[in-house]
Amino acid sequence: MDVKHINAFITGLMEVTSMLGIDSLTRTALNARENLKTENEVNIIIGLVGDIRGNVVLSMQEKTAMNVASKMMGGLPVNEFDLISKSALCELTNMVSGRSASELEKIGVLTNITPPTLIHGSNLISLISQVETLVVKFTAEEGVIELNIATEN
């Protein structure tokens, strides 16, 4: 995995969350996994096609997802992870991926993104791809967010 590609996704997440008022987001860990597998309750998947092929997944616990959705909706309390909250998280992932694609374009890498797919459930293990995955973990006041990047090239 090219570090320039990874940095484009990190930049996308940091810039979009900052724009939405999630100011305390800090990168806390970086790990590699053999495949794209998540164990959190909320997973939003974006597919990548073009010069880079693969998937990007924002993954978090339901409580974190509710906190992030609340922040996105101007602080409106979110007491359950309902359709509006899920839509907000899908839009967040879409915005992050779009911003990341713009960053990639700056370095000559053309990539298109698919619409987001949200998977939600308790005691869930999502095995999404057999491609080696880089997991960048972030912590904020809202909770822990994992950015999973699995690309084929």
Structure, described:
The chain contains three helices and nine strands; from the N terminus they run αββββααβββββ. A hairpin with a 3-residue loop joins β3 and β4. α1 crosses α3 and α2 crosses α3. It has one domain: CheC-like (Chemotaxis protein chec). Helix content is 34%, strand content 36%. The radius of gyration is 14 Å and the shape is globular. The protein starts with a helix and ends with a strand. It has 153 residues and is α+β, with helices and mostly antiparallel strands. Strands 1, 3, 4, 5, 6, 8 and 9 form a seven-stranded antiparallel β-sheet that branches.
Write the layout of secondary structure elements.
Elements: H1 3-19, E1 26-33, E2 36-38, E3 42-50, E4 54-60, H2 62-72, H3 83-106, E5 111-113, E6 117-120, E7 126-129, E8 133-140, E9 143-151
Antiparallel strand pairs: 1-8, 2-7, 3-4, 3-5, 3-6, 4-9, 8-9
List keywords for this structure.
153 residues, alpha+beta, Chemotaxis protein chec, 7-stranded antiparallel β-sheet, 36% strand
Summarize the entry for a quick read.
The protein contains three helices and nine strands; from the N terminus they run αββββααβββββ. It is of the alpha+beta class.
Indicate the overall shape.
globular
Q: Which superfamily, in CATH terms, is the homologous superfamily?
A: CheC-like
| Count of the separate structural domains | 1
Count the strands? 9
Task: Look at the helices and sheets and give the structural class.
Answer: alpha+beta
Roughly what percent helix?
Answer: 25-40%
Question: What oligomeric state do the depicted chains represent?
Answer: single chain
Largest sheet: 7 strands, antiparallel
Average pLDDT, all residues: 92
> How much strand content do the residues show?
35-45%
Instruction: Give start-end ranges of low-pLDDT stretches.
Output: none
Distance between the ends:
7 Å
Rounded to an integer in angstroms, the radius of gyration calculated over CA atoms is 14 Å
Number of helix segments? 3
Order of helices and strands: HEEEEHHEEEEE
CATH C-level label = Alpha Beta
Based on the structure given, which CATH architecture is correct? 3-Layer(aba) Sandwich
CATH topology assignment? Chemotaxis protein chec
